[in-house]
Amino acid sequence: MDNIISDIINNDLLFGKDKEKGIVGVYQLSDTSIRVFNRENDEVRFHDELFFPFFFLSDSSLLDGFVPEEKEKFWLIKLGGANYYQFLAIFQNLKNHRSALDFINKRQYSDKAENKNITYESNSHVYNKGDAVTQYLLQSGKTLFKGMMFDEIYRMQIDIETNYDPSIQRSRGYVSEEDEIIIVSLSDNRGWESVLHSKNSTEKALLGTLVALIAKMDPDVIEGHNIFNFDLPYLQRRCERHGIPFAIGRNGMLPKTYPASIRFAERSIDYTFFDIPGRHVIDTLFLVQSYDVSKRSMQSYGLKAVARHFGFASPERTYVDYKDIATLWKNNHEKLLAYALDDVRETRALSSLLSGSNFYLVQMLPYTYAMTARIGQAAKIEILLVREYLRCKHSIPKPSSGQQHSGGYTEVFLKGILGPIVYADVESLYPSIMLSYNICPESDELRVFPVVLNDLKELRFKAKEKSREEKNLGHTSLAENFDAMQGSFKILINAMYGYLGFNNGIFNDFMEADKVTSTGQSLAKKMIVEFETRGCKVIEVDTDGILFVPPENITTELAERELVNEVSKLMPEGINIGYDGRFRKMISYMKKNYALLGYNNIMTLKGSSLTSRSGEKFGRDFVRRGFEMLLTEDINGLHNLFTEYREKILNHEMDISDFSKTETIKNSIEQYLADVKSGKRSKSITYEIVIKAGITITKGERITYYISGTGMGNASWDKGKLASEWNKEKPDENTYFYLKRLDEHCQKFLPFFKPQDYRMIFSTDSLFLFSAEGIELQKEIRHTETTHNHEEPS
DNA sequence: AGCTGTGGCAGGGAGG
DNA sequence: CCTCCCTGCCAC
After folding, report:
1. Per-residue pLDDT for A523 more than 90?
2. Is the CB of A499 under 7 A from strand B?
3. What is the pLDDT of residues A738-787, one digit of tens each?
4. Å between CA of A569 and C1' of B6
């Protein structure tokens, strides 16, 4: 076999033939369940407890090692996730590896699992032969979407509306369990749309119709925005009330639910996972948050805001406030139906936009679509390695404990207002290092890691080629599909470095992770030296990128490119420096904090101290406008800007959206209270607001608040109020506090002026009219006294 | 149950 | 006041 990844893509079907042993097919039904077709007695057995090892089967050969009794034992074993290790126990020389059976026992009887109330109830049913067998055999190739394009799968979008009953006690405008479902809107990726409602019937009839309709349409994928934490559990509860079986799985099967959590960068969200047999559930809310982890451009993850952000909100879109739903339902239910339909349309557009990379990942990973959408990057890498180990029938190591010690090299050499600017960066720094220096975890005895990385690189290259070819042929849709595919390879490639330093990774290796980063550091330093010896003034370096002012004789883009190319050639084999852009000017403020002014005169700000969404909007606006004025050297403008904001604050002329702050609640209230009590953390304003207001909140939600009162002290944990409590007629925001905040933002301009000039600009105390006369910008501020040495490291 | 990494800045609470 | 420590957010 020449390429591990190609092998997965081309050969893994969860379907085997072994008539002698009675197994006809192994078909993966959903994340946690597979089906085994046993023709011996012309029956189909369902084994929902089995975990993912069968996802690795490309044929039934892995079963050859079993004697029939053992095999039977295996099928019936009920271990939740642990049977994966059962597999290892059977294949393995367990020397120097974990005892698989110990592990199983620990898992099986773990208190933790019991407390979580996760049910692994036996769902082994016996069905008669007939249609079901044929149906599942036909679909066996379809579950992993092998060789399919994204458009070919059948996706259905779903959204529910409930009758908001104002007499019901509720927290924060959320629906209450007592609210009836009045509308279910549905759409699919083939252009079908439908709105079910109970205007002329009952909720019970509506739910019955819905369950039947899902069975009839038979989608592969069910999509919704916040579907795990709202639509599905709500539908399930209401069905329970009416005694309607919530049979939305294939072959009339019921969904299985269990608590799960998902992490987006630093915050994690709890949700109820719905495992719908035979179908995949995709929550577009997760897709959006995952997208925003790298883009950091969204203020809200709500469907309407997201649709506007991506620009597919229809201009005729109907907007309805939840408080008006009950009235509309009575007086103008057509409007409500239109609103509900717009919701599913936007969900469909959102999923079409963001699902592509997950879809193509599914074909490369031995995981289902639903699973791929909710696991992290490290799990994706690990499963590729494990899959190959299973194929080779080799044992699997334990994670090693320890810590990575180094990271990227970051330094600022010059601060101030500088230009012109060239930006260059080492292309795919860490993956390139890993390939060139043959990085491999020590525990990876089969040395699969570098092979997988190389395979991924080559396949990505091919997918890119293919995308280009199709584009040239005018096949736009195909080109886009191949582009999504190459993007999927890129995700995996970039995740491989992080996996090395991942604490729970079974193939982790902190020494190798350190080798990657320290090599990266010396490459960055070499890059600095080479640009400096060519007369460049280096401003800032961060990990793999460098910002510098080229020498005066280099004025055109072409000459800049040649310069970068020249330095690139001096780098070791496999390491290339790319020319990544040119800018008219730059404000170098701090490490990872700067402004760039393009030749189109558009300024971009970078860094948490200049752009953080946790700060007040007025502060961000103030800094942005001020930096624009720095770039145009408009000192009078700066002074006017300061007085403008000062006046606005003093006269309560700002809107709540300007001075409120939004922060994410990362822990549950219970967790917070416990941590404060034990002294593990100190009091925090957002949590205190939530407690004081008596609202229920799930972790991962965001709170918008402001500081009220007239006190002169600092903002403290008991002065916060919810933004919704603010009254325009009686503004009670704390003027003193927000003036202080304005002053703190002014400090960002301090480095660019002499102290006395700074005091003139950012004050209104002057007895004389302000004049910019004699004030000079501090344009070039040397930050570090050439800390790097120019000698070549040996 | 599941979780990719380090580096860096801002802001606030706690305690001296 | 100052320092220390923690959280949150961001760059790469």
Report:
1. yes
2. yes
3. 888 898 899 899 889 988 888 888 877 665 667 767 778 777 776 654 43
4. 28
User: A675 CA, C4 C1': separation in Å?
Assistant: 19
- State the Cα–Cα distance between residues A577 and A536, nearest whole angstrom: 16
DSSP string, A4-59: HHHHHHHH--S---BTTTTEEEEEE-SSS-EEEEETTTTEEEEETT--GGGGG-SS
With a CB cutoff of 8 Å and minimum separation 6, the contacts of A130 are none
Distance A302 CA to C8 C1' (A): 21
pLDDT digits (tens, 9 = 90+) for A404-430: 999 999 999 999 999 899 999 999 999
Q: Report the alpha-carbon distance of residue A43 to residue A25 in Å, rounded.
A: 12
CA distance A747 to A760: 13
Q: Is the peptide bond before A731 cis (omega within 30 degrees of 0)?
A: no
Q: Reduce the DSSP state of residue A596 to 3 states and report it.
A: strand
Nearest-CA neighbor of A287 among A357, A368, A200, A238? A357
Residues 294-353 in A having a C-beta less than 7 A from any atom of strand C are: 296
Chain C nucleotides near the protein (CB, 7 A):
6-12
Nearest nucleotide, CA A297 to C1': C10
Contact A365, A380 (CB under 8 A): yes
Closest CA to A383 of A492, A516, A274, A497: A492
The answer to whether the beta carbon of residue A113 comes closer than 7 angstroms to any atom of strand B is yes
A255 touches strand B (CB under 7 A): no
Question: CA nearest A436: which of A453, A448, A458, A461?
Answer: A453
Q: Tell me the H-state helices in A301-428.
A: 303-310, 325-331, 333-354, 356-364, 369-374, 377-391
Tell me which protein residue sits closest to nucleotide C10, measuring alpha carbon to C1': A608
pLDDT tens, residue by residue, A586-632: 999 999 999 999 999 999 999 999 988 888 999 999 999 999 999 99
The answer to whether A751 CB is within 7 Å of strand B is: no
Is the minimum distance from the CB of A265 to strand C below 7 Å? yes
**Residue A408 Cβ under 7 A from any strand B atom:** yes
pTM: 0.79
**Which residue's C-alpha is at the least distance from the C1' of C6?**
A681
Nearest partner of A475 among A484, A485, A466, judged by Cα: A466
